[in-house]
Structures are given as structure tokens and as C-alpha cells.
């Protein structure tokens, strides 16, 4: 019986991401961490899980070009334009990733109890032909990935202050990721995921 190429090769799945450690230098990272903590309108959305309402275990915000729409944590968010102070950071990320990102989801983990469960950023409004760039400031946190075909096999990256992780196009279709709880961590972390959204079509 002929074996398919998948059966004959049994290769580990390719890892479609690139981690650039220290992409933002420490002084600039301290500046951005403070700026983000103070200038962003952080919120703690409430989500319904098994019929009960729970606050999500972290703070969130959404910045985007006017008109970009994104539904997360049960709520529809609409971009109202990039704040001026944010543009220099956005432009650096766009240049490194060669991608004209039009939205950014921000997460603030106040301490190690704050976390994010397993998921993929594969919602229909995200342009899956574009990369997703994840920029971290503050406390180092483990970022775990697992392939959808091998969910018992986890890869863990430590994302530290100033690190830029680029998840290439296609990553979200095959891989999931999470930020697990780490009880011993007492300091905060801010993470920005830059994304390219499809613009709504108006008739
Ligand atoms: O905080 C992180 O590094 C991950 C954020 C994330 O998974 C997301 O925004 O979808």
C-alpha cells in the first residue's frame, strides 16, 4: 500500500514564527511600558462561560484605524484612529514586518494570576495572509504554542521586555497559543498584537 507523504516523512511540524529578542532596547522599552500603562483606556471585559458571567483575567484595549471592526470577549470593537503618540511604535513594527497593520489588540497582565487560555487568532475579520506581530513589555511570561494535530506537545517561549514575536501567515490555522498563569510573578506585562483586518464592505 502506498503511503501518503505525511505518513512516510513523519516530520515535526514547521514552526511558523520568528522571535526577535530585545527588539526594543531597555530604555525605550521602559518608556513604552509607562506610556502604554498610562495612556491606554484599559478595560476588563465580562464574558459568559457556561451561563455565568466572569471578568476576563487581564485588562484589554483595542487601537485601530477608523472603521476597523473586531469582535473579541463577546463585544464588538471599532477603531477610532491611531493615537498620535502610538504612531512611532506602529511604524517601526510595520517596517520590520513589512506589513501595513491596521489594528492592535492590547493586553495588560497585572501579575502572574492574569492569563490567556488556548486559542488562535483566526477570526474571519483577520486577514490570514498577513503576519501577526506580538510585542511585549515588562515582566517575562511564558508563551506556549501547540499544533492542532499534536495538542499534547507544547512549545514554550519566554517573551521578555522588548521582544518581538512574528507569527507568520498560516500560523493561526495550524497552531494555538496561550499565556499560562504563573503565581510567582508579581509585576505587570503589556502585550500588543498588531494585526491586519479586512475592512467591512459597505453597500
Ligand atoms: O500576551 C500575549 O503574549 C498573547 C496575546 C494573545 O494571545 C492575543 O492577543 O491573542
How would you describe what is shown here?
The chain is an alpha+beta fold. 17% of the residues lie in helices and 38% in strands. The chain has one domain: Alpha-ketoglutarate-dependent dioxygenase AlkB-like (Jelly Rolls), CATH 2.60.120. The protein contains 4 helices and 14 strands. The strands form 4 sheets. The chain has a 6-stranded antiparallel β-sheet with strand order 1-12-9-14-7-4. Bound molecules: 2-oxoglutaric acid.
| Ligand kinds | 2-oxoglutaric acid
What is the average of the pLDDT values? 93
Helix content: 10-25%
Low-confidence stretches: 1-7
What is the general shape? globular
| CATH classification class | Mainly Beta
So, CATH architecture? Sandwich
Number of domain modules: 1
Order of helices and strands: HEHEEEEEHEEEEEEHEE
CATH topology: Jelly Rolls
What composes the largest sheet? 6 strands, antiparallel
Amino acid at each position: 500500500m502506498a503511503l501518503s507523504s505525511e505518513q512516510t516523512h513523519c516530520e515535526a511540524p514547521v514552526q511558523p514564527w520568528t522571535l526577535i529578542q530585545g527588539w526594543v532596547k531597555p530604555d525605550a522599552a521602559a518608556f513604552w511600558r509607562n506610556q502604554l500603562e498610562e495612556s491606554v483606556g484599559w478595560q476588563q471585559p465580562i464574558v459568559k462561560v457556561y451561563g455565568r458571567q466572569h471578568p476576563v483575567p487581564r485588562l484589554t484595549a483595542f487601537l485601530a484605524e477608523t472603521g476597523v471592526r473586531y469582535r473579541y470577549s463577546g463585544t464588538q470593537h471599532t477603531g477610532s484612529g491611531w493615537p498620535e503618540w502610538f504612531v512611532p511604535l506602529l511604524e517601526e513594527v510595520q517596517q520590520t514586518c513589512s506589513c501595513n497593520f491596521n489594528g492592535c489588540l492590547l493586553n495588560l497582565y497585572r501579575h502572574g494570576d492574569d492569563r490567556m487560555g488556548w486559542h488562535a487568532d483566526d477570526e474571519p475579520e483577520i486577514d490570514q495572509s498577513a503576519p501577526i506581530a506580538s510585542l511585549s513589555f515588562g515582566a517575562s511570561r511564558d508563551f506556549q504554542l501547540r499544533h492542532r494535530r499534536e495538542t499534547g506537545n507544547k512549545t514554550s517561549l519566554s517573551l521578555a521586555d522588548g521582544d518581538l514575536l512574528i507569527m507568520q501567515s498560516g500560523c493561526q490555522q495550524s497552531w494555538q497559543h496561550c499565556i499560562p498563569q504563573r503565581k510567582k510573578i508579581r509585576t505587570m506585562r503589556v502585550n500588543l498584537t498588531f494585526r491586519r483586518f479586512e475592512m467591512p464592505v459597505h453597500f
